[in-house]
Protein backbone atom coordinates (compact mmCIF):
# COMPACT_ATOMS: atom_id res chain seq x y z
CA UNK A 1 0.00 0.00 0.00
CA UNK A 2 1.27 3.44 -0.87
CA UNK A 3 1.98 5.93 1.87
CA UNK A 4 0.61 9.49 1.65
CA UNK A 5 4.15 10.69 0.87
CA UNK A 6 4.49 8.25 -2.04
CA UNK A 7 1.07 9.24 -3.38
CA UNK A 8 2.00 12.93 -3.14
CA UNK A 9 5.27 12.30 -4.96
CA UNK A 10 3.49 10.42 -7.75
CA UNK A 11 0.89 13.18 -7.99
CA UNK A 12 3.58 15.84 -8.34
CA UNK A 13 5.36 13.83 -11.04
CA UNK A 14 2.09 13.36 -12.92
CA UNK A 15 1.34 17.08 -12.66
CA UNK A 16 4.73 17.86 -14.24
CA UNK A 17 3.91 15.57 -17.17
CA UNK A 18 0.53 17.24 -17.62
CA UNK A 19 2.13 20.68 -17.66
CA UNK A 20 4.71 19.52 -20.22
CA UNK A 21 2.03 17.94 -22.39
CA UNK A 22 -0.07 21.09 -22.24
CA UNK A 23 2.61 23.26 -23.86
Intertermini distance: 33 Å
Number of strands: 0
- Measured as a percent range, the helix fraction is over 70%
β-sheet strand percentage: under 5%
Poorly predicted tracts of residues: none
Largest sheet: none
Please give the count of helices: 1
Radius of gyration: 10 Å
Q: Report the mean per-residue pLDDT as an integer.
A: 96
Morphology: rod-shaped
Helix-strand category: mainly alpha
N-to-C order of helices and strands: H
Question: Please, could you describe this protein's structure?
Answer:
The chain is mainly alpha-helical and 23 residues long. The chain contains one helix and no strands. The chain has one helix at residues 4-21. The chain is rod-shaped.
Topology summary:
Blueprint: H1 4-21
Q: What structural keywords apply?
A:
rod-shaped; single chain; 23 residues; mainly alpha
Would you summarize the structure shown here?
By secondary structure, the chain is mainly α. It is built from one helix and no strands.
Amino acid sequence: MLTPQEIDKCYQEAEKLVLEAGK
